[in-house]
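User: Sequence in, structure out. Go.
Assistant: Echoing your sequence, followed by the structure tokens.
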Amino acid sequence: MPSLHPDRYLGCQEAALPLARQLYQRMSTFPIISPHGHINPELLANNHHFPDPVALLITPDHYITRMLSSVGISYEQIDIPESPTGAQKGISRELIWQLLAENWITFTGTPSRMWFEEILVDIFSIELPFNGETASRIYEEISSKLTESNFLPQQLFEKFRIEALATTDGTSDSLEHHKALESTPLNGKVIPTFRPDDVSDPERSDWASALAKLEKTVDISINSFADLRNAIRIARDRFIAQGAKATDHGMPSALTVELDESAKEVLFAKLRAGDVSERDAELFRGIMLMEHAQMSADDGLVMQLHPGASRNHARAILDRYGPDRGFDIPVRTEFTNALKPLLNKFGFAENFKLAIFTLDESTYARELAPIAGAYPSVRLGPPWWFHDSLNGMRRWRDATVETAGFFNTIGFIDDTRAFLSIPVRHDVARRFDAGYLADLACSHRISEEDAFVLADHVAYHLSKSFFNL
């Protein structure tokens, strides 16, 4: 770990290494565009010292907590609060850190280990391998650095050369932390992303309360579907005024449905009265995706769609620790028929942009690349979540390049809650893409000149342009 190989993650043939090194050096000069992430804006607005290495590197990283769970280490042992607002039990931070180190071998071969060790070396300048014997010394070194003024969140934001960072924010979020950030001297910008899943999915336990919050936020009574549509438009305008460039939709499926207004009103009234069947809930979600698409066509916010996760799969974890604790599991997803109503209506709309992500790799070549390779409004999101890995990136490129090319993709997204992982995730992706482009050039599938042009776009311009940043 202390001597990370300079050619790491390039993954190309030996003959392509000289070109890959040149491409990577060029790509590494670009600042970071992070248009899809989950950093809490409060972290940057408050600019407080990070409390300890565990709170910084373990607790917010679901890749780490879920792997520990898989080898029999309970969330209680690593002091995960028993609800989103619950208190921690006060387990020794050093003990939790030691527990991770002693189980570090279980992370071998995973991107989690790669990112974590990159953080230790590149950000904290740790010169020790991470294991049970060195854990306490590494913990002390990191703890000491976290007290320094150059390790405050805003200072690290500058050090990471982040040009734009998008957070993910609920429909009725106050956006107070984004407003507070307007008065900070950050060179880059931090903007919200509109995530209206709470008011779009009647099967969610918080759907009724989310509608009530939306009523209060926009000062409108929601007694009809038309009222809901109007309230969401007002909420979107709040986000746009705060700099938002995109929306984000995490529906169970990609189904989109076009119904007349009277049918929408009847369905909404039924659901509002508490009569929520599985079929009606799916129908309503499909209607709402069409509504959100119409709004994006009207106001220009990029629509991001990432269906296909069975959320909070472990009921015991959900009941005890709350949602979003690392137990979302991919499911089979269909896009071609599901998106046909939406694409027939907006696929050629001049002001509409749709980025599609998937957890179902079988759809890359069969459905998503052909869709993005034909409809001018559609771009492919990069390999995401469980597939944000070196092997995942290669499978994705191999399955999509020949049909969709490079310019029908949106560049890299880090999709992370772990702030310090942002620069290393982008760096890993740039290294991989440098090697991939070098291999294409050395096999005479593209020219070296094309490889350099593509490197610039993949590293920076594709995301910046598509998300209007």
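User: And one key feature?
Assistant: The chain is about 50% helix and 5% strand.
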